[in-house]
Every structure is written in C-alpha cells, then in structure tokens.
C-alpha cells in the first residue's frame, strides 16, 4: 500500500515541523528543527545511523536536503531514532526569508 503525499501530511499532522532552505545540510536541518542541540550531536546521530530521510538511513555527514528529492518536491520526512518523526518543508531559495525558523503551522 502506498500513501499519497496528502495522506502522508495528514498522518504526520501531529509531528514536529520545520522549514529549511533548499540545499541545507542535514546536520543544519536537525539543529534548525531543534531535534539536536548542536551540530556535533547531529553529526554523531548521523554517523551512528540513527537518522533517516524519507525512509532511507543516512550515514553521510555531508548529506544535503534538496527540494527536488523531497516528497512531491515539497517536504521530507526525517526520523531520529526509532520513533521521533519530523516533517521538513524544503523552501526554494526565493523563500529563504521564511526558512531557517521553526514553525507550528499545518502543511495541509
């Protein structure tokens, strides 16, 4: 069974949300979203294989989030550990004034 992007958003309505600029590193995204307190903490989690993006485990500390690789070219689902889910809205460079801040609005 495959979920549509709209169904994914609905299922993640209670998940923490953040917005980042297209091309931001995964390390920076984890800190911006307040999932990690520091870049070194984010780096350790990635190196340990405790972070996944859209269901794919990431171990490369140089990993970058791109809008073109996002679900529906809009958002990515980050998972820290076994249970902590996060929706990352990836904004175009033109929207960078809105990026790099935590927000609690619905993505639906």
How are the SSEs ordered, and which strands pair?
Layout: H1 5-11, E1 16-21, H2 26-32, H3 39-47, E2 51-53, E3 56-58, E4 75-80, E5 84-91, E6 101-102
Parallel strand pairs: 1-5
Antiparallel strand pairs: 1-6, 2-3, 2-4, 4-5
Helix pairs in contact: 2-3
Number of helices: 3
Strand content: 25-35%
In percent, how helical is the residue content? 10-25%
Largest sheet: 6 strands, mixed
What letter string, H or E per element, gives the SSE order? HEHHEEEEE
Structural features:
108 residues; alpha+beta; 6-stranded mixed sheet; 6 strands; 26% strand
Description:
- There is one protein chain.
- With 108 residues, the chain is of the alpha+beta class.
- The chain has 3 helices and 6 strands, in the order H-E-H-H-E-E-E-E-E.
- It has helices at residues 5-11, 26-32, 39-47, and strands at 16-21, 51-53, 56-58, 75-80, 84-91, 101-102.
- It has a 6-stranded mixed beta sheet.
- Strand 4 and strand 5 (84-91) form a beta hairpin.
- The radius of gyration is 13 Å and the shape is globular.
């Amino acid at each position: 069974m495959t979920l549509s992007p709209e169904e994914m958003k609905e299922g993640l309505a209670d998940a923490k949300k953040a917005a980042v600029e297209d091309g931001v590193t995964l390390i920076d995204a984890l800190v911006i979203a307040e999932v990690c307190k520091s870049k070194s903490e984010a780096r350790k989690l990635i190196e340990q294989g405790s972070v996944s993006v859209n269901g794919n485990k990431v171990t490369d500390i140089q990993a970058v989030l791109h809008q073109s690789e996002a679900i529906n070219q809009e958002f990515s689902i980050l998972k820290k550990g076994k249970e902590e889910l996060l929706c990352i809205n990836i904004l175009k460079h033109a929207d960078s004034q809105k990026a790099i801040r935590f927000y609690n609005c619905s993505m639906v």
